[in-house]
Amino acid sequence: MKFFLDSAHVHEIEHALNMWNLDGVTTNPKHIQASGKPFTKVIQEIAALFAGTEKTVSVEVNPHLATYEAMVAEAEKLAALSPNFVIKLPATEAGFKSIAVLKEMGIRSNLTLVFSAAQALQAMRMGAFYVSPFTGWKEANGEETLDMIQDIVTIRDNFGFDTEVLVAAVRNGRQIVDGATAGADIITAGFAVYQEAFDHPYTHLGLARFQSFWDQTPYE
Length: 220
Ligand code: E4P
Description:
- By secondary structure, this protein is an alpha/beta fold.
- The protein has one domain (2-215): Aldolase class I (TIM Barrel, Alpha-Beta Barrel).
- 52% of the residues lie in helices and 18% in strands.
- The relative contact order is 0.13.
């Protein structure tokens, strides 16, 4: 199971690479805007952190683009900036078509804004490198997500698609575990989500207790 960081903050990515054995990064227009830097500058800064590795950085095309020709043209420009880039495309008819065209060109795609197994199936049929079902958004809307992830993994395995299932918009440790138990390949979550998921109050309580026993015991 791979852990990606959903962020465009270079300091967060550096910390996750150094301390968490991070496997990759996903960005979106929200994260890019939050970085406070121009789009091209920040994606190149992130790419530099992964130069010479096989790890991927997902970068989204301009969300205003409506035709596959325009999406493919922008994807080609972005992919030329770094061999680590995987191009995020929306789960629209033009996005699906772009996946297939880009695959022919040797450019990897990440189908984003996926909210159903049917959308994921079409992405896999068209040759997506990653498919990104959004759990957090669905759960905020009162919808289940575990069944959807299980269905996507089952469909992928039934037909032998080589697409990796990337569970996105993950908001807590339970959703990370849901992705893992459902057999997804990758989780992407924000910095604070991982920090909280890796932590537990009993760990600190237990550490304090053990420190107290340690302090009351001679070493030799
Ligand atoms: C995934 O690739 C997306 O960038 C991300 O998870 C979208 O949701 P969020 O920004 O609301 O977390």
